[in-house]
Amino acid sequence: MGDMINIAALDEDALFPAYLASPVGAAKAAIIVIPEIFGVNAGIRQKCDHLANDGYLAIAPDIFWRFAPGVELDPDVEAQLQEAFGYFGQYDADDGVKDIEAAIHAIRGGISGHDPVQKVGCVGYCLVGGSPIWRRRVPTSVHRLAIMA
Fold first, then answer.
1. Tell me, what CATH number does 139's domain have?
2. 74 lies in which domain range?
3. CA dihedral of residues 75, 80, 83, 88 (deg, nearest 10)
4. Domains of the chain: total
5. What is the CA radius of gyration of the chain?
């Protein structure tokens, strides 16, 4: 249902990948899906697809693009689980917030040929689901919902 796209980073001369799932017709709103520590894997893409089926523009940014672009890990494979923990150790939450802000700008500016969407929500899985740090850092203009999966 969705496609991988690129988003312009905020404070860097770079593009980062994200999975974008689009609804049929106009979007009710947009939802940024912050992935688990396993990357934009099949499970995260499926969550985006479900949101698109419900009428939302759903986007999952690749949060590890600076050091492990395109990584897709399986949490049920022990070696990949350990690899994910290693990536989590390298992850900088401040950079993650910048990437979310870049996604917001892209959505509100009309991402990948879609009409601009002003109403943006954010949902986090595993990595940020229960983190009070993320809840404080994500811009207050974004509606936030934390989910522990």
1. 3.40.50.1820
2. 3-147
3. -20
4. 1
5. 14
Q: Tens digit of pLDDT for each residue in 69-98?
A: 999 999 999 999 999 999 989 998 889 889
Long-range CB contacts (within 8 A, 24+) of 44-47: 44/19, 44/125, 45/2, 45/19, 45/21, 47/125
Tokens 């419900």: give the residue.
54
Q: Which of 66, 116, 125, 76 is nearest to 96 (CA)?
A: 66
Q: Whole-angstrom distance between the N-terminal and C-terminal Cα of the chain? A: 23
- Report residue 43 as tokens: 């499970």
31-35, 38-42, 65-69, 121-125: least confident range: 121-125
pTM of the model: 0.86
